[in-house]
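quick one: manganese (II) ion bound model?
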Amino acid sequence: MTASTVLLVEDNEDHWTIYRVLLEYVGYQVLLAGEGYEALRKAREEKPHIILMDISIPGIDGWEVTRILKADPDTASIPIVALTAHASEAARKRCEEVGCDGYLAKPVEPRRVLAEVERFIGMPTAGGG
Ligand code: MN
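yep, here:
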């Protein structure tokens, strides 16, 4: 059995570090992508169990990455939770429209990130991989 894998899409190194340390501490395996094309590639190649998607990232933005992944039968079933500083009703609606499964407005408390990951994929499964 492989470990529960989270693809963390985030271009801010401080946020990267905080969420990665937290998720790894709990036992998830974390993959990182710092921009949109890398996020697309890693989602397709690694098929993570869930994606935490920053919206403002270099390359193509998180809305577009989400739209593309949700339009592809190979990746459509991967839950995507938007992590964004665009904390408005319009931004939330746009996340819904492109297919995000969840939405967290920054700044996000680390325990809320964990709770959201757990809500979609449960606690990490044992086993390296
Ligand atoms: Mn960002």
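Residues 5-121 form a domain with the Rossmann fold fold (CATH 3.40.50.2300).
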